[in-house]
From TrEMBL:
Name under which the protein is recorded: Tricarballylate utilization 4Fe-4S protein TcuB
Keywords: Membrane, Transmembrane, Transmembrane helix
Residues in the signal sequence: none
Transmembrane segments: 98-122, 142-164, 216-240, 252-271, 283-307, 313-334
Protein's organism: Paragemmobacter ruber
């Protein structure tokens, strides 16, 4: 068996060949960025890998894929470097590598364990309270979830600092942020080289479905986050405590957001089963699927909890929902959740770099 080639070494070989050809120059942000140099340092490859959205259009347009002796597979090569960067820069690194290869089992076991934990906490329920707070005191929720949210964000911030240094990110300007956010909001790099979509799930057939499901997931998540934020403001600024009626901001934002997340998760999981695993980082397939299922479970259990209002199912459903949310928070630095942070950082870094050779965008 031939020795295993490091992800960076194989990606460097392929990108140097790709840079000499440049047939795919207009496909996404990777290819114009590629033209800045003729040789690629590890930091350059990390930057290109996190710009890549794995749309796979370049693979099907390439004349040097197998059976050609060059055997180019840019989507897989960059996917390996991208996954390596998330794992290598995470703290602790071992936990990130474990989740990428055993993510489904880890997430499932953690949800079950924490569901029992929240169910046991219900024995300490307050003497008074309505809605969720009849099962778990508000202060108890705050004491658990604030550290569980802020601590992973701090770990991600440290990882992003190291990432920024590695890729040679410069001074950040507002114009760079706006440019990056604009590209991220439109999922510009999932539109394909000709704006017809990508080739993720159906070989050389163009499709916009992956972009649409990503939009559902991203904007659904943002709506749910806004729902939680509005409830926090109502609780502390206006002394308006939960449960909230249907016409209130938490419900008007959270219900559509939850439905969008469920639809997005179902669609992305379906597309992932149809996609060719050889065009991605096959070893992290389980971790990526676990992340999609975890996001969908957070939304689905939240909607089920709302539907069960006033019934005896509220207690067990609350324990399951809180467990899934807590697992999502705790695993943020180690799951594919970090891809949003890294990809936005890559887009910001790209906006601040000099124009590529040849005037590419």
């Amino acid at each position: 068996m031939p020795p295993k080639i490091a992800p960076q070494a194989e990606a460097r070989r392929q990108m140097e060949i790709c840079n000499a050809c440049r047939y795919c120059e207009g496909f996404c942000a990777v290819f114009p960025a590629m033209t800045r140099q003729k040789a690629f340092a590890d930091g350059d490859l990390t930057h290109l890998a996190n710009l890549c959205h794995n749309c796979r259009g370049c693979y099907y347009a390439c004349q040097y894929t197998e059976p050609h002796e060059f055997a180019l597979n840019i989507p897989a090569a960059l996917a390996e470097v991208r996954a390596d960067s998330w794992e290598r820069l995470a703290r602790p690194r071992a936990l990130a590598r474990l989740f990428q290869t055993h993510g489904t089992a880890m997430a499932a076991l953690a949800v079950v364990a924490l569901a029992f934990f929240f169910w046991a906490l219900a024995a300490l329920r307050p003497a008074e309270g309505a809605g969720f707070y009849a099962h778990l005191a508000h202060n108890t929720m705050i004491a658990i979830f604030i550290p569980a949210f802020l601590a992973p964000l701090a770990l991600i911030a440290l990882s992003l600092r190291d990432y920024w240094h590695e890729v040679g990110g410069g001074r950040i300007r507002l114009s760079h942020l706006f440019q990056a956010l604009h590209a991220a909001a439109r999922m510009k790099n999932l539109s394909g080289g000709h704006g017809e979509g990508c080739n993720f799930e159906d070989a050389d057939r163009f499709s916009d479905r992956r972009r649409q499901f990503h939009h559902l997931m991203m904007y659904g998540f943002l709506l749910c986050f806004a729902s939680t934020a509005s409830g926090t403001v109502m609780h502390y600024a206006f002394a308006w405590e939960a449960p909230y009626p249907l016409w209130s901001p938490p419900k008007l934002l959270g219900i559509p957001g939850g439905l969008m997340m469920v639809a997005g998760a179902a669609g992305l999981a379906w597309l992932k089963t149809k996609a060719d695993p050889a065009l991605g980082a096959a070893r992290v397939w389980g971790g990526e699927m676990a992340f999609i299922l975890l996001l969908g479970s957070v939304a689905l259990t939240g909607l089920a909890l709302y539907a069960a209002t006033g019934t005896g199912l509220v207690g067990p459903l609350l324990a399951i929902h809180l467990a899934t949310v807590l697992v999502l928070f705790l695993l943020m630095p180690f799951s594919k959740m970090v891809h949003g942070f890294y990809r936005l950082a890559a887009l910001v870094a790209e906006a601040g770099k000099p124009a590529p050779a040849g005037g590419g965008e």
